[in-house]
Write a structure and sequence with these properties.
single chain, 242 residues, alpha/beta, Rossmann fold, 2 domains, six-stranded mixed β-sheet, four-stranded antiparallel β-sheet, globular, binds adenosine-5'-triphosphate, binds magnesium ion
């Protein structure tokens, strides 16, 4: 479904992706783990077309995405939940969701249908729909960020650290919803520093270090790899105890 090949991207003179390749098959949940600054966000943003690339290709369902404008990538069915949520605080929850639908070419009736689907996935967003988004808790704001991405009716959902800054119970809720969405037919590419939780859910995993993919395999093989256990999982377990 998604094939990323030899992707390179730079910030000025500094190259952040040194030739990254990755595949996601339809219906899979794939996780990318890696330390701060490994290039995970840059990779997701390059796939969505908001981060310029200097080499490589992104092919989604047989179409080149790396030559498309970001809104065309969304129209083709790829939606990104950005790092740090980036919701519009003064706008209502409902208006934030409506903004997520702008790049779909569709009538208001099908938008209403998608909106109902999002409210079904996150009933709390329905309860809070008239509230300013900025008044929501961190977990609710993350649900809103996911809901907004779902409003474009994606077939591939990219998520950048949805668990960041959230309590374990809320993280569990968010991950449960991802499992449910995937059961509904969505394909998911997830970036996470919370490697324990993400590897428990995912089918396959990639480990990134300083702009390279250094390991890939089934999520269970990656979770059992001693190098991964030392570098990421011990830390994750300690963080979860707090
Ligand atoms: N706007 C920017 N300008 C310059 N350098 C940047 C910029 N954004 C990221 N970088 C650099 O690019 C590299 C990859 O960053 P990126 O944000 O993709 O990593 P990450 O894996 O998402 O990290 P984190 O886990 O902290 O979110 C890092 O060395 C970072 O310092
Ligand atoms: Mg990041």
């Amino acid at each position: 479904m998604l094939a990323v090949r030899d992707l390179r991207s730079r910030y000025g003179r500094i190259e952040a992706l040194h030739g990254v390749s990755l595949d996601v098959a339809r219906g899979e949940m794939v996780v990318v783990i890696g330390a701060n600054g490994a290039g995970k966000t840059t990779l997701l943003r390059a796939i969505s077309g908001v981060q310029p690339i200097t080499a490589g290709t992104v092919v989604f369902e047989g179409r080149r995405m790396d030559t498309c404008a970001p809104h065309r990538v969304v129209a083709h069915g790829v939606a990104q939940v950005p790092e740090g949520r980036q919701i519009f605080g003064p706008l209502s929850v409902a208006d934030n969701l409506r903004l997520g639908a702008w790049s779909r070419r569709s009538d208001s009736r099908s938008n209403d249908k998608v909106l109902r689907w999002v409210y079904d996935a996150f009933p709390v967003l329905h309860d809070m729909r008239q509230r300013p988004a900025g008044s929501l808790s961190g977990g609710q704001q993350q649900m809103l960020a996911i809901g907004r991405a779902l409003m474009s009716s994606p077939t591939l959902l990219l998520l950048d650290e949805p668990s960041m800054g959230l309590a374990p119970l809320i993280v569990r809720q968010i991950f449960d919803t991802l499992v449910q969405l995937r059961r509904d037919g969505l394909t998911i590419l997830l970036v996470e520093q919370n490697a324990n939780a993400a590897l428990a859910l995912a089918d396959r995993a990639y480990v990134m270090e300083t702009g390279h993919v250094t390991l890939e395999g089934t999520a269970s093989a990656i979770a059992a790899d001693p190098r991964v256990r030392d570098a990421y999982l011990g830390q994750g377990a300690a963080a979860q105890e707090h």
